[in-house]
Amino acid sequence: MPPAEPFVFKKVVYLVEVTGRRARTLDELMRAIATVPTDSIGYHMHREFLAFKFAPIEYPNDFALWATRSLGDEILGEKLASVRVFTHRSLEGLRLELMRLLGEHLFAQPEAAGFTATPERAFHFLMARSVVLGCDRQARSIEEMASVLAEIEASSLYFHLFETRFRGGKGRENDFAEWLRHGLGHEELAAKVAQIDPYMFSLEQARRTLVRTLLEGHPRRSA
Amino acid sequence: MTPPQWQPAPGPRLDAYRAVVGHRAVDELFQLASRLKGKRVQHVNATRTGGGVAEILNRMVPLLHDVGVDATWDVLRGEDEFYRVTKAFHNAIQGEPVELTPQDFEIFVRWNEINAREIDLHGDFVVIHDPQPAAMPFYGPRARRTPDPKRPIVWRCHIDASHPHRAVWTFLEKWVRRYDAALFSAPQFAQALPNPRFLVAPAIDPLSDKNRELPRERIEAVYEKHGVDLKRPTLVQISRFDRWKDPLGVIRTYQMVKETNDCQLVLAGGGATDDPEGAAVLAEVQEAAGNDPDLHVLMLPPDAHLEVNALQRGATIILQKSVREGFGLTVSEGLWKGKPVIGGSTGGIPLQVLDGVTGYLVSSPEGAAFRARFLLNHPEIAAEMGRRGVEMVRQNFLVTRNVRDYLVLFLTLSTGERHFSL
């Protein structure tokens, strides 16, 4: 059997672009979500994880944060925080889920339609242009992958955990799980790595969890 | 006549920044620039000294050279009439009602035409900073008639354009919309335009005289020179003498703090060659300061970078109580010195001051005074905010990140691709 292709670590650099769409009410938010490029929806679902933080992430996406802090709609904030992004096979599917959630919330809580953020706290829809760069690091084995993961830059973790999930328009596992499954044929370990929910961790916490999972699940290690 | 080409002052090379931001961040710049080797990047602005734009360009241009990009920097020339009009434009873009005559608009266009004849916009990428030269690319021998994606021209707006005076913005917009892209410091500043608009936060240079580490003796000497007691609590605001920086509100803040806490105030700033109002504002400030021996109003020359550095490093709290602000680089400067910053909740300041984390955001002299009194009574909280501030700036507001953003901008404009790999 030929040796597996190595896992090539990459990272992403962003330049943030303004879409020109903004919202101060839930109606405006829903209309904008319906029409902005899907890149913008992806950006706001993931941006928090790339930003440098002094404390654990309180809300996993910008929509939940804005609904709670700027609109004062805590129920909606909780609902938006609970959206399971990677159960959707595409950003288009995620867009529909957000619209469904907002529509149902407005039906169940009609008073929410009257909530208005101040002009300074309007939601600005942004998106990113991105350049993918090589990190000059590869892994050919589980040990090597754990070793590189322990010290690779955070933007590489971000790229492989979040950025590639919707690339090509299809939902897929994170890159590490894909390589373990299809490159090395470690189905069991791949399943464990795939189950790591990046939305529950900061990137540094995700790094530690990934390394621990790889080392604990490695057959030679546990033998 | 083409003026002599500007040469950067000797400064640290890009490799020197590895000790501050790490090897990977610097290597990343070389990676990004590998596709831009030899490309000509031409910056144009209104002043070589004074103000944040000149400071940014002074360091960014040499660093672009270090990664192999042929970067140059040209400065407009003008006479008093032009600077009077462009200062009014500046105020109008930031929302101040101004009275401008048709002749004033003609003066703006005339000086843009003159400069367009004198400054050859030869760059593969041209970056025009702020409103003063905004019309230039559309006049002169290389006047841009139609979009040219192979030689993109970018308008970089450094000021708070969230509530512009409509007449002035409408006048400027007819040129701005013809650029290939526009850059703003915050999303709320980005006016409705048909061209792509990007967000690029300004940044400070950690190795410049204004921001590098200083020996204690140097700080002591500067404080002694200005008669400020380094052993006593000191509030420091560094900024141009400009009404948007609310110097009178800062004095009021200090006076309220002084009622309960021993403290001194240093209000220090310089002028810029394109700001004719500075002297009048300074006179108002000096009058408000009166004869208080603990209130120090310092008019510093534009090259007093080490003095500014020392004043910030000796401060207990940094203030930047602006009522309108483009970005407010003095906030990042203060945070980089490990000081808590009390800043006006306006413009780009909330991007730097995380309320309650790296300082406080305020909307009035009363708010600023309350937060200053709190920090003076809780030095351990002030110290922790200062530590966070250093990391905040390291991650987000250093010149290396600014260079990175421009490199990505040039790459995305030249390839026409939204997402690509190198």
Structural commentary:
The complex is a heterodimer of chains A (223) and B (422). Chain A has helices at residues 26-35, 38-50, 62-69, 74-81, 91-108, 142-149, 154-163, 175-183, 187-195, 203-217, 219-222; strands at residues 7-23, 123-139. With 223 residues, chain A is of the alpha+beta class. In chain A, strands 1-2 form a two-stranded antiparallel sheet. In chain A, α2 crosses α5 and α6 runs antiparallel to α10. In chain B, the strands form two sheets. Chain B has a six-stranded parallel beta sheet, covered by helices on one side. A six-stranded parallel beta sheet of chain B has the order 9-8-7-10-11-12, with helices on both faces. In chain B, β11, α12 and β12 form a beta-alpha-beta unit. Chains A and B meet through β1 and β2 of A and α2, β6, α14, α15 and β13 of B.
What's the short story on this structure?
The complex is a heterodimer of chains A (223) and B (422). Chain A contains 11 helices and 2 strands. Chain A has 223 residues and is α+β, with helices and mostly antiparallel strands.
Summarize the largest interface: chains and residue counts.
Answer: A-B, 23 and 34 residues
What order do the strands of the largest sheet of chain A run in, or round the barrel if closed?
1-2
Tally of contiguous helical segments of chain B: 15
First and last CA, distance of chain B? 41 Å
What's the total count of β strands of chain A?
A: 2
**Overall 3D form of chain B:** globular
Low-confidence runs of chain A: none
Radius of gyration of chain A, Cα only, in angstroms?
Answer: 19 Å
Computed structural class of chain A: alpha+beta
What's the main sheet of chain B like? Answer: 6 strands, parallel
CA radius of gyration of chain B is: 21 Å
Number of helices of chain A: 11
Parts with pLDDT < 50 across at least 5 consecutive residues of chain B: none
Quaternary structure annotation: heterodimer
Output the helix-strand order of chain A.
EHHHHHEHHHHHH
